[in-house]
Specification:
Elements: E1 2-6, H1 12-18, H2 29-48, E2 53-54, H3 57-64, H4 67-73, E3 85-88, E4 93-98, E5 102-112
Antiparallel strand pairs: 1-2, 1-5, 3-4, 4-5
Helix pairs in contact: 1-2
């Protein structure tokens, strides 16, 4: 089975790109971590994942594993919540997060018949 990943239907990451943080948020978790991670995730997904046909789960996993290096190369240090992109084939999405923080869905998996 092959896959194509699309953005979230609500466009959350795209909205982050347009959103300007107020001065009061710059030194908060949102300003220091969430907003920069959303912007970098959007860039990573657009450049490496979205609308690309992956012929297997392994090929998709290999592409997603490049996320930490991409972020670091572009000047973003990742914390535990953001350091990995995972796949949930049953839920048909990709996400950041872990068992402590929960899943933050960043893309939708469209499964294609071969």
């Amino acid at each position: 089975m092959s896959f194509i990943i699309e953005h979230r239907p609500d466009g959350l990451l795209q909205k982050t790109k347009e959103f300007r943080l107020g001065k009061s948020l710059l030194d908060t978790y949102i300003g220091r971590v969430t907003h920069p991670n959303h912007k970098m995730l959007l860039r990573f997904l657009d450049e490496n994942i979205i609308n690309i046909k992956f012929i297997s789960e392994k090929e998709l996993k290999n592409a997603l594993e490049k996320w930490p290096d991409f972020a670091k190369k572009n000047g973003l240090e990742l914390d535990d919540k953001w350091n990995e992109i995972s796949i949930d084939l049953l839920g048909e999405y990709i996400y950041c997060g872990n068992s402590f923080t929960g899943d933050f869905v960043i893309g939708i998996i469209n499964m294609l018949a071969n």
